[in-house]
Amino acid sequence: MKNNKPVSSYFGENTFDIKKLLKNTPKKIHSNLQNAINQGEKILPETSDAVAIALRKWAVSKGCTHYTHWFQPMTGYTAEKHDSFIDYDGNGGVIEKFTGKQLTQGEPDASSFPSGGIRATFEARGYTIWDPTSPAFIIEYPHGNTLCIPTVFVSYTGETLDRKAPLLRSIQVLNNAALEILKIFNHPAKKVFSTLGVEQEYFLIDRNYYKQRPDLIQTGRTLFGKMPEKHQQLEDQYFANIPERAFAFMSEIEEESYKLGIPLKTRHNEVAPNQFEFAPIYEDVNIAIDHNQILMDLMERIAKRHNLTVLLHEKPFAGINGSGKHANWSISTDTGENLLFPGNTPESNLQFLVFLISTIKAVYNNSKLLRASVASCSNDYRLGANEAPPAIISIFLGETLSKVLSDLGAGKVTKTKDQSWISFGIDKIPEISKDSTDRNRTSPFAFTGNKFEFRAVGSSATPSTSITILNSIIANSLLETNAQIKSEVKKSKDLNKAIVRVLRKIYNETKSILFEGDNYSASWEKVALKRGLPNLKTAPDALKALIEKKSIKLLENLKIFNPREVESRFEVDMENYCKNVDIEAKVSVDMSLTMFYPAGIKYLNDLLSTLTLLKNNSSSSLNFMIKDLSKKLDDCFTEIKNLEKMLKSAHSIKDTFKRGKYFESIKVQCLKLRITVDNLETIIPNNLWPVPKYKELLLNL
Ligand code: ADP
Ligand code: MG
């Protein structure tokens, strides 16, 4: 239904933000609360008690009967276990009650969540612990409302079991490292945090069709299907009129999001048929990630009300563009400065260049780790598929900055055409104008004026994993830059000169990660190989980077993960990969054997019966079709049997990496089977085809 209220009149009404917290709690807890949120100070019992009371009153007044600790286990989804507010009142009745203890700590049974071996079954306890930096919120269902409290999820021994705890650690580490750099510039900031705006791409399809496709239901993507004759070749989808049905869905999502304080800004048609995008205004990274998780949940839920299904999978349809989640990332100070914004004065530019070049170095040194952070079974179908960034991680800077940096590297004094920046002598720092050149849409990691856009993140993934890595490697790089500057200053005393010398050195050592050209071109692969840039095409190869000594050491030094935690993430992600391929393979076999092959046999039977009706079996076209169909059916059958055979031996492989590689080959076999089925689709009559085709799924909103 149309809601004509201005968004500003109800924005955030279902979220209990810091303003509401301060308004509804006694003054004496405010400094502890604010320091907890801003500086990570420990929450005192009286603070949590007061917050619990305020939260309960607010939630109950808004119709909540239950509360839940809302957390992000390593499944990639969110988890919740609801408890009612009721408690005995001592007089035979009940009252609503919510204590500080219930707010701050929960104890879900951890044994049913992935832990990668951290949690032994005999010690299954896990704890959810309140994250006061992300506001509590209310999720409304038609039949009841629930208060959700963002929490981290850790094991009995304090090791992380979720995707949020490491993120919070990385935020802290980045804050510390960036503040050290800012001290060099006498910057007044007391806090530095990363900001994030995630563009969420997705497909919408009619739910009736969805229900007829076991592959979509069980794997989120089509395992079979011939391209429709018309797809995206006319380029008539991007930014086209939004179909009314999709619009109704979007409006409802937006209204729910606004109530939750999710600042959705942009909606539009994407490149592929039935593909769309939502993008919010950027926020503090922890909140932005929670919001993206909530948004994905809302999308899946609300789509059903419109008899639609939302597909968040990276590649629901072969041959047609897939979906990503562009992570627009920057670093800001509590004084309101974007540290990746090229400044107007030489001094602020030097500071900008320290952050920029440290980022370049971070990506150069840890591109494998970054690649690992976006690795999944589903994202493998998209990366490198000529529409999404390749598996090679490189950085795009744009013409102006590229020139500034290459001159810095060469120690040259030059002038640009537009005079927008001047020389780069050892003691002169240029003005840098905002880049006016075209964006490079093919780059996995592009500088876009005042932020980086990491485009390799998958549409179904939580951005948490990749942002944790991004924050960490940049923090590490900033710490190293800081140390280099400190030692260089000792030699020369002139601070600016020392900084420029350090930056020049770093730039020259790491510039091979920079690439301005077409990342989709075949020649880039060759160039990248020559430059020694890793090209990890599949998730198993990428994930292996997690457990390389260098990665373990970096993450351990920064206290993001201890070695056991890294090992467990590797196990969980690889296991997830194998399980997903396993499900896809089994669904492939099942659909082929029970749907497509029988459809072919039915048609063969029809052809053969028709032939027997003819005098002398004399139709050459019928004979041709019978032969052709028989051959196609045999091909299909052969590939089914090959796949079945491969599946049988998969689980005897104990070594995690080897098992991953084996499942990678199963994926290849699934594709072989798919080709035979898609070939059958080209000749079997429409009315015999057992599932809705691409043209029905994609061209009907
Ligand atoms: P595009 O042309 O790629 O759509 P936009 O300028 O619209 O670029 O930005 C896309 C996303 O980047 C939005 O979510 C926006 O809020 C976000 N964004 C803009 N500035 C920043 C920043 N400083 N930090 C993080 N994200 C940002
Ligand atoms: Mg963008």
Characterize the structure shown.
The protein is of the alpha+beta class and 701 residues long. The chain has 4 domains: 7-160, Ubiquitin-like (UB roll); 163-197 and 328-561, no CATH class; 200-323, Creatine Kinase, Chain A, domain 2 (2-Layer Sandwich), CATH 3.30.590.10; 576-698, Four Helix Bundle (Hemerythrin (Met), subunit A), CATH 1.20.120. 47% of the residues lie in helices and 14% in strands. The chain contains 21 helices and 18 strands. The protein has helices at 18-23, 30-39, 45-61, 100-104, 165-184, 207-211, 214-219, 244-259, 285-305, 346-365, 367-372, 399-410, 463-492, 495-510, 522-531, 539-544, 549-557, 563-613, 620-650, 656-683, 694-698, and strands spanning 15-16, 64-71, 79-84, 86-88, 94-96, 105-106, 126-130, 136-141, 144-155, 192-206, 264-269, 275-280, 283-284, 308-311, 325-333, 395-396, 445-447, 452-454. Strands 10, 11, 12, 13, 14, 15, 16, 17 and 18 form a 9-stranded mixed beta sheet that branches. The two termini are 19 Å apart. The relative contact order is 0.11. It binds adenosine-5'-diphosphate and magnesium ion. The site of adenosine-5'-diphosphate has 14 residues, from strand 10, strand 12 and strand 15. Magnesium ion binds next to loops.
Q: Which segments are poorly predicted (pLDDT under 50) over 5 or more consecutive residues?
A: 413-428
Q: Return the average pLDDT rounded to an integer.
A: 91
Q: Name the bound molecules.
A: adenosine-5'-diphosphate, magnesium ion
Number of domains: 4
Rg on CA atoms, Å: 28 Å
N- to C-terminal distance: 19 Å
Shape: globular
Helix segment tally: 21
Helical/strand content category? alpha+beta
Biggest β-sheet strands, sense, barrel: 9 strands, mixed
